[in-house]
Specification:
The structure holds two protein chains of two kinds. By secondary structure, chain A is mainly alpha-helical. Chain A has helices spanning 3-19, 21-43, 55-58, 60-86, 89-94, 99-128, 136-160, 164-180, 193-199, 203-216, 223-247, and strands spanning 49-50, 53-54. Chain A has a two-stranded antiparallel ribbon with strand order 1-2. In chain A, helix 1 (3-19) packs parallel to helix 6 (99-128), helix 4 (60-86) runs parallel beside helix 7 (136-160) and helix 4 (60-86) crosses helix 10. By secondary structure, chain B is an alpha/beta fold. Chain B has two domains: 3-224, P-loop containing nucleotide triphosphate hydrolases (Rossmann fold, 3-Layer(aba) Sandwich), CATH 3.40.50; 227-296, Alpha-Beta Plaits, CATH 3.30.70. The radius of gyration of chain B is 24 Å and the shape is globular. The chains are: A mainly alpha, B alpha/beta.
Chain lengths: 253, 314
């Protein structure tokens, strides 16, 4: 293993995060606060509790998941697309690094940034509502696994994007709607039966449900289904990246 | 001297079926400076990028130090460095971070003493904390060289190293290349400048349309290429060529005021003195004189056209 090479990519990416620390942290903190004001105060005054949990507290895992998903994707996609855009990718490709090592460096950094932001959101949420974590290890398991999985997904976007606008299409048009419709701010039990069934087709629902279970021991679907879902997406991303790298498609034309 | 690089029957197609390299065979000896020449789009960069692992080639083998670059990519890439043609750098990073980053990528432990020495050698030390965007084009070119040398390679590829660089800096670059070669680094460079190939290289290859059409020692090749043109501008136009000037095979421009005469630098004698005397004897007053040397690319295009015509005739 080229550990120095992996470390170089990781530190290089984390350095970019440090340089833009204010923007990186200010945006999720402000967004989280706004969600609490809008959802917590406006809707929370009408829906006091879901599954015995205060509404403000209930939406915390969903908000964290929304941020983790979007941040992981955007960090990893930008991190890999940027050297492609500036052509500085030549030295990564010319270096004695395997595909796995390149992915580990980029995805590791993107997932780390998301985890930091996720922790900041948990702290921010504490200023507005009581946040209880019944299963901290399970919570970390979901947090880390989701960060890695969606950083891998972002890496794929970074490999295929034709321009900066291409980096935004999937997060805006697919991920954000899936998170909003995946029970971030409500329980699917509150929906009519038909929409409950439709919601079960949304993979993000399983992530949010499993993650919420680690906080309050309440969930829309079983913990096992949630775990299997995230692992399936993870394995799918790994297979896809391995195949793309082995063919050199869009990287080593 | 043993071969540090061996290229055998390498072919590369791009995805739109454009053939970039066709059965390329080339051996590079350890310790030499080798110039790869050819017109734009000939396949120079594709060949370098294939050797360095930046693009995948379709068929053939490439060996560095007798090791296959695909099977033994970790070992072969550790001793290879590349300076790209374009100024591909991260604008918001400092020189110091940029160069240390490259060293890390190539699997080398941080060595601040070596990087300091390298930056001093390339006159970059006082710019080490500057961001890349604050540097001039020449300085950026030096940063690219520093990055390529950060892991102490034995085989260095320089893709148009002095493109868009002023004359003074070009000479500095040549000194850097010579010093590196003296320190034991084998260098392969692509260039359009005949002076560069003359000044630096031991051997030269010409590539055209993805094929190597000529590999020769520099001195032999220069004899074939050393044509120069003298342009003599007159105050009055030449109405009719007669008298002493009729024995020369020169051309006139549209105004009939500029005489262009081509001669070979490598012949034992040139007839320039005689021509100037005859211009004077025929009663013309000289306004200005200048000489032009064809760029290597132009000369090679001519060679290549001759080569193509010969193939058609045969």
């Amino acid at each position: 293993m080229n550990w120095y090479g992996i470390k170089a990519i990781y530190i290089h990416e984390m350095e970019r995060f440090r340089r833009t620390l204010f923007q990186s942290l200010a945006s999720p903190i402000i967004t989280t606060s706004l969600y609490f004001v809008v959802f917590g105060s406006a809707i929370g005054s009408r829906i006091t509790e879901i599954d015995g949990i205060n509404y403000g507290s209930y939406i915390v895992p969903g908000m964290i998941m929304l941020t983790i998903l979007t941040q992981s994707i955007s960090n990893a996609s930008f991190a890999f697309y940027f050297p492609r855009f500036t052509n500085t990718i030549y030295e990564i490709l010319a270096a004695p690094l395997s595909s796995f090592e390149i992915v580990l460096g980029f995805v590791g950094a993107a997932a780390s940034k998301s985890l930091i932001i996720g922790c900041v959101i948990i702290l921010t949420a504490n200023f507005f509502v009581d946040v209880r974590i019944d299963h901290p290890l399970l919570m970390m398991f979901f947090l880390i696994l989701t960060s890695i999985t969606f950083a891998l997904f972002g890496f794929i976007i970074g490999m295929y994007a034709e321009g900066f606008e291409g980096l935004q299409i999937i997060p805006i048009l697919i991920i954000t709607p899936l998170v909003f419709l995946g029970g971030s701010f409500y329980s699917i039990n509150m929906l009519p039966e038909f929409w409950q069934k439709i919601s079960l087709l949304n993979p993000v629902l399983y992530l949010i449900s499993g993650f919420r279970y680690s906080f309050y021991e309440v969930s829309d679907v079983s913990l096992l289904t949630s775990t299997l879902t995230i692992l399936t997406i993870l394995i799918g991303c790994i297979i896809f990246i391995t195949y793309t790298f082995s063919k050199g498609y869009r990287i080593k034309d | 001297m043993k071969n540090i690089l061996e290229i055998n029957n390498v072919t590369k197609f791009y995805k739109n079926s454009v053939k970039a390299l066709e059965n390329v065979n080339l051996n590079i000896k350890e310790g030499e400076i080798f110039a790869l020449l050819g017109p734009n789009g000939a396949g120079k960069s594709t060949l370098i990028n294939s050797i360095c692992g930046i693009v995948n080639f379709n068929t053939g083998t490439i060996k560095i130090n007798n090791m296959d670059i695909v099977k033994n990519y970790r070992t072969t890439r550790k001793i290879t460095g590349i300076v790209p043609q374009e100024l591909n750098l991260e604008s918001f990073e400092t020189v110091w971070n940029n160069v240390n980053y490259s060293r890390g990528l190539f699997g080398k432990k941080t060595d601040h003493n070596y990087i300091e020495k390298l930056l001093k050698q390339l006159s970059l030390w006082d710019k080490k904390d500057n961001k890349i965007k604050e540097l001039s084009g020449g300085m950026k070119r030096r940063v690219l060289i520093a990055k390529a040398l950060s892991h102490q390679p034995k085989l260095l590829f320089l893709d148009e190293p002095t493109a868009s660089v002023d004359v003074e800096l070009r000479k500095d670059m040549w000194d850097v290349v010579k010093k590196l070669n003296k320190d034991g680094v084998t260098i392969i460079l692509t260039t359009h400048y005949i002076e560069e190939a003359e000044e630096l290289s031991d051997r030269v290859a010409v590539i055209n349309d993805g094929k190597i059409i000529l590999v020769d020692e520099k001195d032999k090749l220069i004899k074939k290429l050393g044509e120069k043109t003298i342009k003599i501008e007159l105050f009055e136009s030449v109405e009719k060529i007669n008298g002493n000037l009729s024995k020369y095979n020169f051309t006139l421009d549209q105004t009939n005021k500029i005489i262009s005469h081509t001669y070979n630098l490598n012949s034992n004698t040139t007839d320039i003195t005689e021509l100037l005397n005859d211009v004077k004897k025929d009663g013309y007053k000289i306004k200005d004189i200048n000489t032009e040397q064809s760029s290597l690319e132009e000369i090679f295009i001519k060679l290549i056209q001759e080569n193509n015509n010969e193939l058609v005739r045969n």
